[in-house]
Design brief:
The chain has 21 helices and 2 strands. The chain has helices at about 1-10, 15-45, 60-65, 70-80, 80-95, 100-135, 145-155, 160-175, 180-200, 215-235, 255-285, 290-325, 330-355, 360-365, 370-380, 380-400, 405-430, 435-460, 465-490, 500-525, 530-550; strands at about 205, 210.
């Protein structure tokens, strides 16, 4: 046990913001790639195409997608990002001042309370799965699709409970700057679903006893397996931190009461996104078989760069931002937030451009034969990629100040606008899933603008002339980059014959590398300092390789 503790301590050391962001981004990249592989296996098995071994089952995939809505919604409201941004600032106040007893009491209380609340929630989902699916989530599903979705929801209903405990444990590690196991855990969730898709769908046989006959319900069992694996890895990350767990809720702890006072506003804010998702699935279920899945997959693809850049950098930066304010250094807080925002914007712009023009390739990676509908939905979501990525960093500016109400009020306005636009554009204007996607992009832009205006007025020196000039240069660089990307896709187009992952990957890689080099050259020409660390790192790698070649001689 002592040897295990030493190994975990060595792996799980406190990291700098840059290294933490790199590890989180790498983890999210690997998790996203596993997610692509997961969806590719699912689509190969059940999506309608001549190669699917089940001859296509779009209703089954629609049911699978719809089954997640209520469990994910409840987890988002009760835990999810709501916990980390409310828990970490309060935890850090105690931790920095050396009051570890209070910090561990807050941690134990949150684990126990969240476990109790989500247990009740999971039971209620199991009981009311049928009417929820019929009247709220997907009223447009066929009778067979409805029955399957209800059964899957009842299996997946255990997720809020498992994820709640894992989320508190992960937040503890994030608060003290330990990101290794925090980063590893989400990858195993997709591993579980892949196991469910490849093996559980063929049935489960133990010692000659058939305990499960197979089918798409096996994927739901894989979801539960993935959540359990995620919890186990998260728990391993606590080894060596000195966590003093107590099976008790410390209602008198002021820090715990502070977290509870902050939690409702952030929970409502976090839940707003899922209200939009519920409305979108409801509308998509009326647009024909397979539309729920296509739209959901386009959303999944658009979330990849948001998670890789916006979520990864904001999560890595958040503890440092809270520490600046806890140390009463608002000047350093403004400097750091401004720097993080510039980095996020600079990194996401070329990704948005490549995603838009090479969207056929991107969709191919999860659907082997490509899908024009899904690709065009993704194209409509590109503006949402840009502004949702920026949103995560801007929102952390409020959460670090322990202000969860302002983003909540803005989110309430955004949710109303998003649902209204989804109904108008998707249903009445008959734009179908493209209308739903345009509603997302428009609202993402409006929400970020409102939050930036409020934050700028609260901190007048935050968005100074240097910052505005730098962002203008990045936007200027995007114009010739778009032309270069358009031309490169014309030269290397996605063709119907590109029916294998390895066949399309080199072409997409060539397009991406070329356009990233163009963007880097434009950034250097415009004197954007964000390019300098990248060039310095490349020089170090090149020179070190050159030196090694000399030594070998």
């Amino acid at each position: 046990m002592g040897r295990v503790r030493n190994v975990v301590n060595k792996i799980n050391q406190r990291l700098t913001v840059k290294l933490a962001a790199t590890i989180l981004a790498s983890s999210m990249l690997l998790s996203s790639l596993l997610g692509l592989l997961r969806d590719r296996f699912l689509n190969a098995a059940y999506f309608p195409n001549e190669k699917a071994h089940l001859a296509g089952y779009p209703v089954g995939l629609d049911a699978y997608t719809a089954a997640f809505m209520v469990p994910d919604f409840m987890f988002a409201i009760l835990v999810s990002g709501a916990l980390s941004v409310t828990f970490i600032p309060v935890f850090n106040e105690r931790w920095i001042k050396g009051n570890k007893q209070s910090a561990w009491q807050i941690s134990s209380s949150m684990i126990n309370l969240m476990a109790l609340v989500t247990l009740v929630t999971s039971v209620l989902i199991i009981i009311f799965a049928d009417p929820l699916m019929k009247y709220l989530i997907a009223p447009g599903l066929s009778e067979a699709g409805h029955a399957l979705a209800v059964s899957m929801m009842r299996v997946i209903a255990v997720n809020p409970l498992i994820f709640a405990v894992a989320a508190v444990i992960a937040s503890i590690q994030q608060a003290v700057g330990r990101f290794t196991f925090y980063a590893l855990a989400p990858m195993l969730y997709n591993v579980g679903i892949i196991i469910g898709t490849l093996w559980f769908t063929n049935g489960i046989n133990l010692f000659g006893w058939q305990i499960f006959d197979g089918g798409i319900m096996g994927v739901a069992l894989g979801v539960v397996l993935g959540s359990v694996l995620q919890l186990i890895v998260s728990a391993v990350g606590l080894i060596g931190l000195g966590f003093d767990y107590d099976f008790k809720i410390y209602w008198r702890n002021r820090g715990f009461r502070k977290v509870l006072s902050l939690l409702p506003a952030r929970s409502i804010d976090q839940g707003m996104d899922y209200v939009v998702s519920l409305a979108e699935v409801n509308l998509a279920s009326r647009m024909g078989d397979g539309i729920i899945r296509r739209y959901n997959q386009a959303l999944t693809l658009h979330m990849m760069p948001i998670n890789l850049i916006g979520v990864a950098i904001s999560n890595a930066a958040f503890p440092q931002l809270t520490e600046r304010l806890a140390s009463e250094r608002p000047d350093l807080f403004r400097r750091d937030l401004r720097s993080f925002l510039r980095t996020v914007i600079w990194m996401i712009i070329p990704i948005c451009v490549v995603t838009f023009f090479a969207r056929g390739y991107v969709v191919h990676f999860i659907n082997n034969n490509g899908d024009p509908v899904m690709a065009n939905i993704l194209g409509c979501l590109v503006m949402a990629i840009l502004f949702r990525t920026v949103y995560h960093m801007v929102a952390r500016g409020f959460y670090a100040q322990q202000d969860t109400k302002t983003p909540m009020y803005v989110s309430i306005f955004a949710i109303v606008l998003n649902v209204a636009l989804a109904v108008i554009l998707g249903y009445y204007a008959k734009l179908g899933p493209y209308g739903l996607a345009w509603a997302q992009s428009i609202v993402a832009f409006v929400e970020v603008v409102i939050l930036c205006v409020i934050l700028g007025r609260r901190m007048p020196q935050l968005f100074d002339a240097t910052f505005v000039k730098a962002v203008a240069k990045m936007a200027l660089a995007a114009v010739p980059l778009a032309v270069a990307c358009y031309v490169s896709v014309l030269v290397i187009p996605f063709r119907a014959s590109d029916d294998s992952f390895l066949g399309a990957l080199p072409k997409f890689g060539a397009i991406t590398i070329f356009n990233f080099v163009v963007y880097g050259a434009l950034s250097k020409w415009l004197k954007l300092p964000e390019i300098d660390p990248v060039l310095a790192r490349m020089k170090r790698l090149l020179f070190s390789r050159f030196d090694m070649s000399k030594l070998r001689r």
